[in-house]
Amino acid sequence: MNEAALSARRVRKSYRSGDRRIEVLRGADLAVAPGESVSIRGESGSGKSTLLHLLAGLDLPDSGTVAWDGSPDTGPRRRAAFLGMVFQAFYLIPEIDALANVLMARRILGRIDAVAQARARELLFRVGLAERGQHLPNELSGGERQRVAVARALMNSPRLLLADEPTGNLDEGSGEAVIDLLLGLCRETGTALVLVTHNEAFGRKTRRQLLLREGTLHELHSPPAGAAG
Question: Which contiguous run of DSSP H or E holds residue 26?
Fold first, then answer.
């Protein structure tokens, strides 16, 4: 049996606010198989972003474990190769063009060579931006900038992709196109996807749908017909 691409077990996280301690996560459990797509919804303040930061190894839980492919190593060296992330705010570097932004993910791992250049161009083609590689971010629409961010997230052929409200700054049409692109590319590449979204319709497109409520994760639906991954 294949090891889960991502697993979180009994994860707890709290923060101090003045003289109070606020419990955000109270024993969250999650397992995502290789190539599987999972969406997480929840009310504002329910802890979705906190959970995603723990899953990404950007923060540590108070207790419980997070593992990638069965390994507890979620440090920065491994993260660059194992994990891709897509954010609501794009986080593109404004002074460099779309192609260079995609290549930034590879630069973290070392020298940019001809193979990396070819992969970045191929990814821009796959996200429908083959003719926009030399454009700066401010010359692109919001939907195009998020497509660049998707290409950047996939640059290092990650095993796991985490998307935090990736359509939050987009109109409904552009948002749906980005979600379909994410799901399609992850399905084709066998990349596990965890999508945090407030949009119920987008959440239902994933293989499994979860709700974060009162600090724990709850399964919402059985896999819908035709769901991705």
Answer: strand 20-32
Long-range contacts from 88-94, C-beta under 8 angstroms, 24+ separation:
88/164, 88/165, 88/166, 88/167, 88/168, 88/169, 89/169, 90/137, 90/142, 90/145, 90/146, 90/148, 90/149, 90/169, 91/149, 92/137, 92/145, 92/148, 92/149, 92/152, 93/137, 94/136, 94/137, 94/138
Strands 83-87 and 216-221: unpaired
Q: What contacts 24+ positions apart, CB below 8 Å, involve 49-52?
A: 49/164, 49/196, 50/13, 50/24, 50/25, 51/8, 51/11, 51/13, 51/25, 51/196, 51/212, 52/162, 52/164, 52/194, 52/196
Burial (0-12, 13-18, 19+ Cβ within 10 Å), 8: buried
Q: Are 195 and 203 in contact (CB under 8 A)?
A: yes
How does pLDDT run across 25-83, given as a tens digit for each residue? 999 999 999 999 999 999 888 999 999 999 999 999 999 999 999 999 999 989 999 99
Find, among 209, 189, 174, 161, the residue nearest to 56 by Cα. Answer: 161
Give the residue among 161, 159, 137, 158 at the shortest CA–CA distance from 147: 137
Q: What is the pLDDT of residues 2-19, one digit of tens each?
A: 689 999 999 999 998 888
Q: What's the distance, CA 6 to chain centroid?
A: 12
